[in-house]
């Protein structure tokens, strides 16, 4: 028994066209109806996540939290590197400041005597870039009236003035073990403390900012998760 022919109407073109072709009940006609192509919308992954989360009670807040959370996860590498860099700066700054503090504590003992020294000569040396550096040579007198000499450890590009005075401290048991305690050389340890404190401050501020951003990102993600489950 032959199968019944389909009734007249529009059917997908059997010739492979994109439209429909008219079937009159017996044969295919020449009339073709073209269907416009339906554009396909491809949503990015973060948009899909935001739409899913928007179905909860607080759609706006949850969608924002999802976007921020994905941004934090995407940039986790640079953010982690910035966190470690901040901790490194803070540590280096504290070490430099501590080094400056130990310099002043180790140079002068509690029983040392402070006296006045006079610049009597100047020594010259060359730095690595060829600059001429000058160091002052001091003389001072101990309580026994003996004269001693001391060459400053700080070299400067400016030549010290002969006859200028500054403070020095020495151990009464060993008068030759003197250090300069006055002027720029005597307070050079403050440079270490100042530079170290500045580096530690920069690292500390950066660390606090990184931790605040990390905490805020985690809070948004946790809040979005909790709203989604509600």
Molecular structure report:
- By secondary structure, this protein is of the alpha+beta class.
- It is 44% helix and 25% strand.
- It contains five helices and eight strands.
- The chain has helices spanning 45-53, 59-74, 76-107, 183-186, 189-229; strands at residues 9-12, 20-23, 28-33, 113-126, 132-141, 147-151, 165-171, 174-180.
- The protein has a five-stranded antiparallel beta sheet. Strands 1-2-3 form a three-stranded antiparallel beta sheet, with no helix packed on it.
- Strand 7 and strand 8 (174-180) form a beta hairpin.
- Helix 2 (59-74) packs across helix 5 and helix 3 (76-107) runs antiparallel to helix 5.
- It is rod-shaped, with a radius of gyration of 42 Å.
- The two termini are 62 Å apart.
Termini separation (Å)? Answer: 62 Å
For the largest sheet, list the strands in their spatial order: 6-5-4-7-8
Helix and strand composition category: alpha+beta
Question: Roughly what is the average pLDDT, rounded to an integer?
Answer: 76
Classify the beta-strand content into a percent band. Answer: 15-25%
Spatial shape: rod-shaped
Give the fraction of residues assigned to helices.
40-55%
Put simply, the count of helices is: 5
Main sheet record: 5 strands, antiparallel
Low-confidence stretches: 41-69, 71-76
């Amino acid at each position: 028994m032959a199968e019944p022919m389909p009734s007249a109407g529009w059917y997908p073109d059997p010739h492979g066209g994109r439209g429909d072709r008219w079937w009159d009940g017996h044969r295919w006609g020449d009339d073709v109806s073209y269907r416009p192509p339906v554009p396909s919308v491809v949503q990015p992954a973060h948009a899909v996540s935001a739409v899913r989360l928007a179905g909860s009670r607080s759609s706006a807040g949850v969608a924002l939290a999802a976007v921020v959370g994905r941004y934090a996860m995407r940039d986790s590498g640079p953010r982690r590197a910035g966190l470690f860099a901040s901790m490194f700066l803070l540590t280096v700054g504290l070490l430099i400041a501590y080094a400056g503090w130990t310099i002043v504590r180790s140079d002068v003992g509690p029983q040392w005597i402070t006296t006045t020294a006079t610049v009597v000569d100047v020594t010259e040396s060359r730095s690595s870039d060829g600059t001429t550096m000058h160091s002052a040579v001091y003389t001072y007198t101990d309580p026994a009236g003996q004269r001693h000499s001391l060459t400053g450890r700080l070299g400067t590009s400016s030549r010290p003035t002969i006859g200028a005075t500054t403070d020095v401290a020495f151990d009464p048991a060993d008068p030759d073990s003197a250090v300069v305690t006055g002027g720029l050389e005597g307070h050079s340890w403050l440079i270490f403390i100042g530079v170290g404190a500045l580096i530690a401050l920069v690292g500390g501020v950066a660390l606090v900012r990184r931790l605040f951003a990390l905490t805020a990102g985690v809070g948004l993600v946790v809040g979005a998760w909790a709203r989604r489950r509600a």
